[in-house]
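Holo prediction. Input below; ligand is zinc ion.
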Amino acid sequence: MHKSTLITMISAAALAMTAEGAAPEHFQPKAKELLADSIELEKNAHNLNVIYFVGNDMEPTADYERRISELLLYLQQYYGKEMVRNGFGNHSFGLERTENGNVNIILLRGKHPHKFYKYGSGHGPCLKEINDWFAANPGKKQSQHSFIIMPTWQDEGYNDKNPGGVPFYGYGKDCFALDYTDFDIKHLGQPTKEGKLLTKWYGGFAHELGHGMNLPHNNGTVSMNKAFGTPLMGSGNYTFGMSPTYLTPASCAILANTEIFVPETNKTRFYTNEKEPQVYNATFKRRGGTLELFLEVSADVVRVNAYVQDPPYAVNQDYDAVSFTCNTGTDKNGKRVAGIIIPLNELSNLRHHKGGEMELGILFQTNDGSRFRWKIPFDLNKQAAGSLINTGKPQLHRGY
Ligand code: ZN
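Structure of the complex:
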């Protein structure tokens, strides 16, 4: 029959590996302390482009190179440790380092005053200038993923104590975050004004970076949330640094096939797949206390994620979508298949978990990191008779 993989409970793997001298000499004591239990990460085929972007009337916030380097290296370890814990190996996003150990941060000055690059609309012209710069400096572009930081505005609305004004969201393979004077890892987890502010903006930074590395929102199962806290791609941007915050197996499954996570031996040309994967057969049944999803797919599908969500389904209403994942495998007839079993008691954080209209989102990940989403409405009670979804041709949408 079908190979199936059920990933709902994964015990924390012991992180035995340590890296010597992970923190550069000039890092502050708190950063050194936080990086002391660093794990050794695989060398990446591609690195994240890190860009500090300022308007033509602005200067970067003081000491940004050390501060942002400390914050990024800690985050690289966080993602790497979560990948190990979820069984995906010691992979994280790649970062190019400078001679003194800082992260290589490209400082770009915009053509316009800083208020031109504002929240909500400023990302477009900013990305255009960045793309123009990469076109003129092709050797500097390390991957298709960029992380862009702008300093907070300083005006009647925003300042270092109440940062804002600039774009702050993931946008395709790019993501935006902000910088301010106290954006410093020494405040991590501190019960102070600066500590709370850091969780807000560093948690946001960690979460937006996730979007910029292909991750959609999701929630964990009931038992995972109990064991590991709040998923970073759920509402973990509000808990990061303050209380346990984790990456779900479904998030890690996507990262494992993201351009800036793969090891240097991986020669894949990412995101080139123009062809939709094929779904030849799909069944979705309720059997007692579980929902069972089985799929037969084309050979280019490497992993399948499932997301169960209750209404509403509008943009940014998907934080509570409970996620599951499995690798595809080959059955005895040589067909590429995937199976996911969803225990209903793992959905009880959803308001409508006892019945009524819900939505199953199936995310197909192809071997070049492309993702395609199929959304299927269903009713938990009507699914009880063991009905099939009979697919015909599924409507697949590229992206999240
Ligand atoms: Zn988000």
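The chain has two domains: 21-255, 279-397. That is the main takeaway for now.
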